[in-house]
């Protein structure tokens, strides 16, 4: 069993542009590839877990989500970094498209995507981290026994300012700062 870093996608790895509906709108943050490469070198399995409500609303197709993830994989590989796997939730309880209308176990903050990755990839959740720009990402960490880190990119600045944030919340500026924190905890 190996430790993992579960990364949210939009607002954490790449700029959040609302519904990412065209590849030319995919802009990785400048530190994302380096951060993942450092995590890889430290022995972490890096996994993306992302809610993709745009599928449930018909804005994007599941095929396009796979295209985006393929493009991201290629960009990371070209930079010497590896994202082990991508998991996404296309569901929404109020989805206008019936086949995606459900209260599932995979939509964050529920733990379904992380638990599926555990089964697929042999992950030790107690030594793992979840990094994202929303408290729902941090809640996934709590729901599976991992450590959650909120980044101030994407929606993170607004989320961090909420008065109801958890008292033990770890908040950092971006994915590179989260990586430094993770590597420091892994060494300690």
The main pleated sheet reads as:
6 strands, parallel
CATH class: Alpha Beta
CATH topology: Rossmann fold
Assigned CATH architecture: 3-Layer(aba) Sandwich
Measured by DSSP, the beta-strand proportion falls in 5-15%
Classified in CATH, the superfamily is HAD superfamily/HAD-like
Described by the principal axes of the CA atoms, the overall outline is globular
Q: Could you give the distance between the termini?
A: 19 Å
Low-confidence stretches: none
SSE series: EHEHHEHEHEHEH
Number of strands: 6
Q: Please give the order of strands in the largest beta sheet.
A: 3-2-1-4-5-6
Please, what is the average pLDDT?
95
Structure write-up:
With 188 residues, this protein is of the alpha/beta class. It has one domain (4-187): 3-Layer(aba) Sandwich (Rossmann fold), CATH 3.40.50.1000. Helices cover 38% and strands 15% of the residues. It contains seven helices and six strands. It has helices at 32-41, 53-57, 62-78, 112-121, 135-144, 156-161, 175-187, and strands at residues 4-7, 45-51, 85-89, 129-132, 147-151, 170-172. Strands 3-2-1-4-5-6 form a six-stranded parallel sheet. Helix 6 (156-161) links the parallel strand 5 and strand 6. Helix 1 runs parallel beside helix 7 (175-187). The chain is globular, with a radius of gyration of 15 Å. The model has no long low-confidence stretch (mean pLDDT 95).
